[in-house]
Design goal:
Layout: H1 2-10, E1 15-17, H2 25-35, E2 38-41, E3 53-55, H3 61-70, E4 75-80, H4 83-99, E5 102-107, H5 113-125, E6 131-134, H6 137-149
Parallel strand pairs: 1-2, 2-3, 4-5, 4-6
Helix pairs in contact: 3-4, 5-6
Length: about 160
């Protein structure tokens, strides 16, 4: 990655547009800050104070908090799969402490389709029907498929 970045910089590139991977985002933003090269990305937002990173996708924490508050959810499950979900979860937990919400956090980073089925069966046993799913799109499709297959998309489920 270092070679690619420096070779572009030596050609007179003043801005880079593209996606990033979680394992390289810190190096990329560091290069942009050090070399004063703007990085424009539609990837999910990362916490950075780097003035040379322009994130086109908005952060979702405040919107999620507003929805939970609007519907007056007091007890719910927050399912997440990536480091990105941790920052959202932290904001949800901070708000939960202020508003006396009960949040059950479930990390499904390594969960299989069978694991999703078992998770939703367990949630059914516990009468947990309010669920926030914060996952990458490919994993989300598998989860939504299990929800439909288990008929957990009817009245009373949110």
């Amino acid at each position: 990655m270092t070679y690619r970045f420096c070779s572009q910089f030596s050609k007179g590139v003043y801005a880079i547009f593209g996606f990033y991977e979680r394992r390289t985002v810190n190096m990329l933003t560091s290069f942009c800050g050090a070399l004063h090269v703007c990085f424009i990305t539609p990837s999910f937002p990362v916490d950075t104070s780097n003035q040379f990173v322009l994130q086109l996708r908005p952060e979702l924490q405040e919107a999620l908090i507003s929805i939970i508050d609007h519907y007056k959810w007091q007890t719910f499950v927050y399912i997440y799969d990536a480091d990105r979900g941790l920052s959202v979860l932290q904001r949800v937990l901070d708000t939960a402490a202020e508003k006396n919400w009960q949040v059950t956090a479930v990390n499904i980073l390594t969960t299989t389709e069978e694991g999703y089925r078992m998770l939703f069966q367990d949630l059914e046993k516990k009468k947990e029907r309010l669920v926030v799913v914060d996952c990458e799109s490919e994993r989300l499709n598998a989860i939504l498929g299990q929800i439909v297959k288990l008929e957990k998309n009817g009245i009373g489920y949110h």
